[in-house]
Amino acid sequence: MAKIKLAKDKVEKLVEICKSFNNEGSELINVLHQAQHNFGYLPAEVQEVVARELNVSVAHVYGVVTFYSFFTMVPKGEFPISVCMGTACYVRGAEKVLEEFKKQLKVPIGETTADGKFSISCLRCVGACGLAPVVTIGERTYGRVAAGDVADILKEYQN
Amino acid sequence: MEKYKMHILICGGTGCRASASELIQTNLENALKAKGLDDEVQVVTTGCFGFCEKGPIVKILPDNTFYIEVKPEDADEIIEEHIVKGRQVMRLLYTDPDKKEIVSDAKNMGFYKKQIRIALRNCGFINPENIDEYIARDGYGALGTCFEMTPQAVIDIIKESGLRGRGGGGFPTGLKWEFASKNDADQKYVVCNADEGDPGAFMDRSILEGDPHSVLEAMAICGYTMGADLGVIYIRAEYPLAIERLKVAIKQAREYGLLGKDILGSGFNFDVEMRYGAGAFVCGEETALIHSMEGLRGEPTVKPPFPAESGYNGKPTNVNNVETFANVPVIINKGAKWFSSIGTEKSKGTKVFALAGKINNVGLIEVPMGTTLREVIYEIGGGIKDGKKFKAVQTGGPSGGCLTEKHLDTAIDFDNLLAVGSMMGSGGMIVMDEDDCMVSMAKFYLDFTVEESCGKCTPCRVGNKRLYELLDKITEGKGTMEDIDLLRNLSAVIKDTSLCGLGQTSPNPVLSTIDNFYDEYISHVKDHKCVAGQCKALMQYVVDPELCVGCTLCARNCPVDCIAGERKEAHIIDVEKCIKCGACMDKCKFNAISIQ
């Protein structure tokens, strides 16, 4: 196994999380949820520590992390933007909204702006279909978003 | 509760919360306090009322006034006018779009008239975070009734009721319970599938947010019939509010002795835990779901063995969907006969649908089986948005099909929808109008399936990708007639050779659009035209020389300099160079540029 480069306090936090689930391999998904909640993402080093603590292979952990779309191995922006691409939002023009975010921020889906401020991703239905198309930024939900609203929305987060 | 003279109910579902319903509640409470009425009028947060299009909704009891599109700044007026002076705030009432009449009571609205609420009976009525309100509406009474019967007698009631699985499969619930009850083991499990992954569907989330106890009660009843003492709810991590409400509900049920050891002195033990999904559509399939619960990749496995024999941790497990469970307590309370009197011959009871898309009344509805698509779309849904023409309705999500005008009088039930080439699915119902391209729609669903295929079976992993590429080729205007045949053949292979429901149904959107909108495929392939004007590669921006005044604004804004023309003369777009960004059309002040 590669040498673990993670800061000591982070390793300790991970050990603590694993312990809270009795270091059981069957709790892997719950452990990963907690780890991502704490660190924002799941880089290789984090996966290595989790594998060691739960006594499963790193390949197994990696297999689970990459299987589920909720887990990410790259850090998200300070303000993660998610454009809902559920069917209801799609037929009400979510694609145009997504294109506009990509154009304004100049980053593709799944990536973060150079200043670390914004990241763009798609998600499948937040269940607010009455407000379609829906965009969420962090905890905030924006409803009935049109491509023309994108610049104003982004302005709220500048500075 | 009885000390209050009036109640103000406010929707606390995800949709209305996104429109500041929490702030409305705070403002209402503050306004009541300012008037010294907070002892007489209670503000209650409830689950979803269903009429999401007009949210946030505020309802006042006992007079049943139904206010729509309420804003935080309306709170003072509602209190001052309605509560203090007893006059309805007219501007916040619903106006019937046909009769142009104001309707203040929800039960007289077109949206609600044809609905029968069984699974949603408490959504929008009770505070989901208060177990007393659930108990006041016969909550946990069914569980008590069951303890006076043998487990088999309870199973017989569910069997007689004709209840079928609401997650999409439509398997008879009573039979499933019976299988699980007959397998002896030291440990058995009841699992609630709350991994609602169908994009555009929010039935289960609304039930969990609005009435979590009904699911807990039903799980306990199921546990009693099969001899399981542990229930597990597998829920999407993307549903934070539903998770929170379930946690509160589980805690309260334990405090009341309705979960835990020796429930109601019956000697029966039952507790409920939660597991979180992590965003994988395939986990809606029960074997995949069980693997995910065990901390593995959510890949399906061959049945048999069925979960009823060997499921979670290798023990007998019964998996039901949220909506299926929500029906159970009512069936016990009101009887199998009552339930089976609603619906069609082979599909009993009601079905909840998330009605969305190009429709006037987006929302959550519950209708008796046998209601026609036309009734749902035109009477409940209020018809197509912006007066456009109806084109298709999609049911069953990525596993279902697109139905057309000629199917509108189909009575909705499990078997009828299958017969016309779609399926019930979990309850997503998306309405499309003339501006939606059906080839693009099929492509949209395939994009979803390609992403969500777990990769275990080659036909699903590779085949769906090829389907997507063929569809993409057609939307780019490069398709051939052979491609359409290839789509059909490949679809048949994928359906026949995939292991689980995902692969077996993923070609349905392709097949149903080819069957029902063949002309549209032909016009993409032969005429290189997209009638809906959605496929970018097939669009042409054209300047109308009659309307163009030669202001040069379009030419100056074109990023690739493909517009030529002198001042005060009609301009021309070079279609070869045009990248179809639409900037010229946006800028033109004379509506001289159009898409052909």
Q: Strand portion of chain B, in percent?
A: 5-15%
CATH architecture of the largest domain in chain B: 3-Layer(aba) Sandwich
Biggest β-sheet strands, sense, barrel of chain A: 4 strands, mixed
Oligomeric grouping of the chains: heterodimer
| Helix residue percentage of chain A | 40-55%
Strand arrangement, major sheet of chain B: 12-11-15-13-14
Q: Compute the number of strand runs of chain A.
A: 4
Q: How many β-strands of chain B, per DSSP?
A: 19
Count of helices of chain A?
7
Whole-number tally of structural domains of chain A: 2
**What integer value in Å does the Rg of chain B equal?**
27 Å
For the record, give the distance between the C-alpha atoms at the N and C termini of chain A, rounded to a whole number: 43 Å
Helical fraction of chain B equals 25-40%
Give, in order, the helices and strands of chain A: HHHHEHHEEEH
Overall spatial form of chain B: globular
CATH domain class of the largest domain in chain B: Alpha Beta
Q: Any low-confidence stretches of chain B, pLDDT <50, length ≥5? A: none
**Major sheet of chain B, described briefly?**
5 strands, mixed
Organism (chain B): Ancylomarina euxinus
Domain 4Fe-4S ferredoxin-type (chain B): 539-568, 569-596
Protein name (chain B): NADH-quinone oxidoreductase subunit NuoF
GO molecular function, one term (chain B): 4 iron, 4 sulfur cluster binding
